[in-house]
User: What shape does this take?
Amino acid sequence: MTTNPYLDSGPFFIHEEGVRKLPLPGRSDVKPQYVHHLALKPPPEISHSTPKRKDVKQRCVKFTVAAVICLLLLLLLAGILLAYYFSSPCAHGMQCGDGSCVWESQWCDGVKDCPAGQDEANCVRLHGSSFLLQIYSTQTKNWRTVCSHGWTDQQGRASCRTIGYSRSTYFKSGQQKTDSGDGFLMVKSDFNPEAFILRQLVLSNTCPNNSVVTLRCTDCGSGVNSSRASRAQMASLGSWPWQVSLQVAGSHRCGGAIISPYWIVTAAHCVARTSSPGDWTVYAGIVDPLGTLFNPAYSVSRIIAHEGYNSLTRRNDIALMKLTKALDIAASSKIGPVCLPNVGLNFSVPEKGWIARFGRPENDSGSPYLMEAQVSLIDTAKCNSSIIYNGRISQDMLCAREMEAGSDRCHTDSGGPLVSLKDGLWWLIGDSVWGEHCTGQNKPGVYGNVTYFLDWTYRQMKKHQDK
Assistant: This one.
């Protein structure tokens, strides 16, 4: 039986030629066939695709962050715009007096879109000492003169009513030449006297002879001798035809100035405590206590104090009184209105003016007489200095000092007019507000700035106009 060499218990090394038996190794000679070594971590494989994927991922993150930031900024901007829009309800147009809005194109278009008609209230104005008629064009967004071609008193009356004057106060229309290159407004050939004046005019680039309209809505500012002494003195009858005495219970309370046969300008503090029209009586054309015996007493139908009047600061210290019936100006040369200051008139330092007030002559404790004195306007900055009124004078006030030294005695007459002569007419530039010369400080008198209140005055006249 042949022995299988593969089953022999001893180790053998097999050759092709034969089998040779090897001696058994010693213990020291035994070496493991496999040795376990801790292999070092192989370097990462370099892949050309990995950086590209990483760059794309970083770019996506950056783009997402930038998009989020832009979106947040847009939302913030939209929030700001919406907040502004809702906090300013007329961001898209013009504001009416009650807070409602109309489009800018609806302003001065001849159609009342505001509930109280504010959009058509100040669209017609008089400019300068020549009373040049100007009307605001909503199409060109500027003030335009009106060509006199085709203009009649019919259009004149309609324009005066648009400003705020009553139908019966119209005086006259005139014309003057102009070199304006801004264009004109022309009367339509089919004029309708019942329609709003703004709807009766059309734009025109030319005007025959460049002759434009001047408009006098009331016969004002005339009849006064301007050659007067500078010292304070008693006034003569008819020297200041617009001066009135406003009385309560038969006693003189305040002064005032006639601006139309129906309207009187005075100070708001005069009527603050006695605001009922029935308590007041108006006398015109008087200079002494006996004047009330020979002149009619006019009753008051309405009193309008400025809504912004402040009794502490005397801001907005102006008021209007409307008479129950018109003053009979035609019957007396001693009564007549003073002119309201038109747009474009400049009354500045050192403008000279006159004041008339009911007071008592020196060393006389009797009834008040009408006193007159010449004054000179004082710069507001100077009047606001620490040694005078220390910042109390605001833009709605004027300061004026009497020309004669030491004449600022205690002849104050609240609401009395401050007037100035310019181009042959007398203009109302102030109403007496307060004066501290009665306290012995000999400080300038303070007057309400009528020019500042011009729009307010016309708006009230328009609102309470006779139908």
The chain has a mean pLDDT of 83. The chain has two domains: 104-216, 233-463. The longest helix spans residues 50-87. The chain has six helices and 24 strands.
